[in-house]
Amino acid sequence: MTDASLPPLPLLLSGHAGADAARHRAIWAYDGRLAGIARTTRERAIGQMRLAWWNDVMEDDAGLKGQGEPVVDALRATGAMAAPGLVAMIDGWEVLVVEEEIDAQGLRDYAAGRGGGLFRALARQDAAPDWLTAAGQVWALWDLAGHVEDAALADAALTLARAQLPLVADARWTSAWRPLRIAFTLARQDVLARRGAPRGMPRGLALRLLRIALVGR
Question: CA-to-CA distance for 4 and 30, rounded, in angstroms?
């Protein structure tokens, strides 16, 4: 796995993780693999089989399954394979693979699995505080809203994300969680403005990210 395989935002966020950057990049790359399955699946059964393969990798205590797959190798080399939340991320992405229409419960399940699992994994927190998993859910819903073609689904995702914001009001970000704070703050700003995540790395997003990293807002 190379840095070039990561989208700009996860790559920049990982750069704020200091000595933990390689582990962050591996987890973001794993999220990207699951996203690719959701994006390219045309038959639900095939998509579930592809996700089940990743679940088998997570459960392989011998560390043999998936050897040679770049993201699998990166997860093992950085110690990220032991991160909590990785299996929950599969469950979250599975919602988008198996459901023809995503209702409110489906959105909640997606956000809890993908977003909550992602932030738990990045933070190394199995029993993560509720506000941290809520922050991850806000981020995941913001990201989804910016990458779906269904305007109604995007609007529903933003509505749910906005409802989650009060749950993050008592956040206590540690220095080790700086990348997560930046990611959440980006999402929060757009959710309040009813905007989904921009695609790619437009100049405005890059400037906002720099400002948040420097001054916290």
Answer: 14
Do the beta carbons of residue 119 and residue 88 sit within 8 Å? no
pTM value is: 0.95
Residues 95, 57: Cα–Cα separation, whole Å: 20
Q: Please give the Cα distance from 80 to 168 (Å, whole number).
A: 25
Quick one: how far is CA 105 from the chain centroid? 19
Q: Which residues of the chain have pLDDT under 50?
A: none
* Phi, psi dihedrals of residue 178, rounded to the nearest 5°: -55, -45
Q: End-to-end CA distance of the chain, in Å?
A: 32
d(CA 195, CA 178): 23
Contact (CB, 8 A) for 121 and 143: no
Angle between helices 130-145 and 178-192 (to 10 degrees): 50
pLDDT in tens, 123-178: 988 778 999 999 999 999 999 999 999 999 999 999 999 999 999 998 999 989 99
